[in-house]
C-alpha cells in the first residue's frame, strides 16, 4: 500500500530487485508525482561522476564508516515498477481475493495521499501512514470509516510539535525578504511537488508582490518540475474545497502556472542551463534534492556557501541540518532551518484516535515516552508500540469465525435445539476462502458414512460449548452453530 509519493521512492527496489510478487495499490496522483521524483533521482545518479566524487568527499569525513553506492534503479525499472501499480480512488472499496477488502481515504497530507482501511472476515485494521488535520492544498482528512476498528496503526507523526506550520511559513518569508534586501541569494533544497507548491504561493503573496525588493528571479531546477506543476493544476477532485472551486470558475487551483507563463518563475532542467536563462543576482533557487546528497542543490550549495550574504533555507523535517551540512563544512553562508511539518502531533493524534475507540492503538516506539508523559493509562485505549522490522501483535477480535454455508448443504443439516435460540448440528463439506469470506460447500468426494449414523445430544448450550472444546477438527469435519440465520464455526 503506497500512501503518498514520498513513500514510493523505494518501490522499484521492491518490485524489480526482490522476490516480491504481490499487488501494489496507490492513487493516481501518488503514482504520477512518484514517477516525476523517481525520474529525477535516476537522472541525478546517471549524470556525470559528480555523485561518486561527492561520495568520496563525504566518506573522507566519516573516518569510521565505510560507504558504498548501491546500484540505483534505472528508467526502465521505474516504468516497469509503476506499470504494476493498481490505481484506486478515495473511498473506493477494492476486493483482495483470498484476503478481504481495503478502502483508501484522504489523509490531508498531500495530493492523492491516503490512509487505508483494511478489512478481513474477522478484523478491521486502519493504517495511517502520514496524516494531518491542518488545512493544506490537499483534500481534507476523513475519519468516518475508522469506527469499530480492531486496531489503528500509525506510521509517522510530527517531529516538531512546537513549531506551528503557519508561524514557520512566516519565518521562511522573513528570511527570504531579509536576504534579498541585503543583496544575497537564497537556496531552497526541495522536491518539485508537495509543500513546494505552498512555498511558491506564500513567497509571491507575502514577499515578492508586496515588499520593495530589487527585481528578483525565482528559479526551479528539475527535470520534471514542468510536469509536476502542470499535473498539480489538473487534480481538482484531489484538492481542498477552496482550490477545487477555482477549477470550476474556471481558474487554475495554483498560481504557479500563471507565474511560469508570465516569466516570474523559470523552470530549468539542470544547472548547466542557467547561463542560457541569464540567471543573475539576486535570485531564489528551488532545487532538488532536500538531502543535499544528490541533485542540482549540491552544485548550487558548493557555489554559494562561501558568501556570507547568501542563505540556505532547509524546510524538509526529515533531514537534520547538522547531518545534511556536515560534508560541506566550513560554510560561510547563513543557514535557516524552517521545518514545515504539517503532520499531526502525538498529543492530538492519540486524543483523536482514542476517541474512535479502537481495540488497540499501535504507535512507533519513539513515541512511547511522549505518550506516557502526556496521558494516564485510563485516558487512552490499549496502546502498543512497534519498531522497524518487529511484529506488533494485535489482540484477536473474535474467538469464532463466521462461515457461510452452501444453501444445499445447509438444508441437509440436522439441528438439535439447545434453547435460547441456539441449535447445534454436524456437517461435512469443503472449506474455501472466497471474496465473501469463508464458505463451506458440498463435496461428493467426502466420505459421510463416518458420521451419518452418529447421534448428538446436548441438553444445554453450556454442554454444547464444552463438547466443542473437546472436538478435534480433522480433515473436513466442522461443528456448526446456527444463530440468527448465520453459522459460526
Automatic annotation (TrEMBL):
Domain Beta-Casp: 196-325
GO cellular-component term (any): integrator complex
Compartment(s) where it occurs, according to its Swiss-Prot or TrEMBL record: Cytoplasm; Nucleus
Span of the signal peptide: none
Record keywords: Cytoplasm, Nucleus
One Gene Ontology term from the biological process aspect of the record: snRNA 3'-end processing
UniProt record similarity statement: Belongs to the metallo-beta-lactamase superfamily. RNA-metabolizing metallo-beta-lactamase-like family. INTS9 subfamily.
PANTHER family cross-referenced by the UniProt entry: INTEGRATOR COMPLEX SUBUNIT 9 (PTHR46094)
Official protein name in the record: Integrator complex subunit 9
Amino acid at each position: 500500500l503506497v500512501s503518498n509519493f514520498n513513500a514510493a521512492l523505494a518501490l522499484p527496489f521492491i518490485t524489480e530487485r526482490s522476490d516480491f510478487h504481490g499487488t501494489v495499490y496507490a492513487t493516481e496522483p501518488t503514482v504520477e508525482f512518484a514517477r516525476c521524483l523517481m525520474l529525477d533521482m535516476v537522472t541525478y545518479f546517471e549524470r556525470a561522476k559528480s555523485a561518486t566524487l561527492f561520495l568520496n568527499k563525504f566518506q573522507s569525513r566519516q573516518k569510521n564508516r565505510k560507504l558504498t553506492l548501491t546500484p540505483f534503479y534505472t528508467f526502465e525499472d521505474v516504468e516497469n515498477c509503476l506499470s504494476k501499480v493498481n490505481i484506486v480512488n478515495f473511498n473506493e472499496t477494492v476486493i483482495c481475493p483470498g484476503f478481504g477488502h481495503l478502502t483508501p481515504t484522504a489523509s490531508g497530507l498531500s495530493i492523492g495521499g491516503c490512509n487505508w482501511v483494511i478489512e478481513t472476515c474477522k478484523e478491521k485494521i486502519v493504517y495511517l501512514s502520514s496524516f494531518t488535520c491542518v488545512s493544506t492544498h490537499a483534500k481534507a482528512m476523513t475519519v468516518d470509516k475508522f469506527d469499530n476498528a480492531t486496531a489503528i496503526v500509525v506510521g509517522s507523526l510530527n517531529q516538531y510539535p512546537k513549531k506551528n506550520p503557519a508561524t514557520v511559513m512566516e519565518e521562511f518569508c522573513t528570511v527570504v525578504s531579509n536576504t534579498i534586501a541585503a543583496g544575497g541569494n537564497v537556496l531552497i533544497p526541495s522536491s518539485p511537488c508537495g509543500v513546494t507548491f505552498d512555498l511558491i504561493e506564500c513567497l509571491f503573496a507575502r514577499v515578492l508582490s508586496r515588499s520593495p525588493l530589487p527585481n528578483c528571479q525565482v528559479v526551479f531546477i528539475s527535470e520534471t518540475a514542468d510536469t509536476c506543476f502542470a499535473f498539480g493544476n489538473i487534480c481538482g477532485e484531489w484538492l481542498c474545497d477552496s482550490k477545487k472551486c477555482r477549477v470550476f470558475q474556471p481558474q487554475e487551483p495554483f498560481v504557479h502556472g500563471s507565474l511560469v507563463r508570465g516569466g516570474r518563475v523559470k523552470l530549468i532542467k539542470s544547472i548547466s542551463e542557467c547561463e542560457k536563462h541569464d540567471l543573475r543576482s539576486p535570485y531564489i533557487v528551488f532545487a532538488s534534492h532536500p538531502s543535499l546528497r544528490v541533485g542540482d542543490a549540491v552544485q548550487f550549495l558548493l557555489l554559494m556557501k562561501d558568501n556570507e550574504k547568501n542563505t540556505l533555507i532547509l524546510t524538509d523535517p526529515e533531514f537534520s541540518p547538522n547531518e545534511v551540512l556536515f560534508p560541506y563544512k566550513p560554510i560561510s553562508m547563513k543557514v535557516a532551518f524552517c521545518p514545515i511539518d504539517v503532520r499531526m502531533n502525538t498529543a492530538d493524534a492519540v486524543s483523536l484516535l482514542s476517541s474512535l475507540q479502537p481495540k488497540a492503538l499501535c504507535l512507533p516506539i519513539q513515541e512511547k515516552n511522549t505518550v506516557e508523559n502526556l496521558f494516564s493509562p485510563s485516558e487512552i485505549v490499549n496502546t502498543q508500540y512497534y519498531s522497524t522490522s518487529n511484529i506488533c501483535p494485535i489482540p484477536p477480535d473474535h474467538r469464532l469465525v463466521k462461515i457461510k454455508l452452501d444453501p444445499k448443504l445447509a438444508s441437509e443439516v440436522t439441528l438439535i435445539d439447545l434453547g435460547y435460540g441456539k441449535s447445534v448440528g454436524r456437517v461435512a463439506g469443503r472449506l474455501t476462502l472466497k471474496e465473501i469470506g469463508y464458505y463451506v460447500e458440498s463435496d461428493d468426494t467426502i466420505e459421510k458414512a463416518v458420521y451419518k449414523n452418529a447421534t448428538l445430544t446436548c441438553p444445554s448450550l453450556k454442554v454444547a460449548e464444552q463438547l466443542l472444546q473437546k472436538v478435534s477438527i480433522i480433515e473436513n469435519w466442522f461443528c456448526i452453530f446456527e444463530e440468527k440465520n448465520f453459522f459460526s464455526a
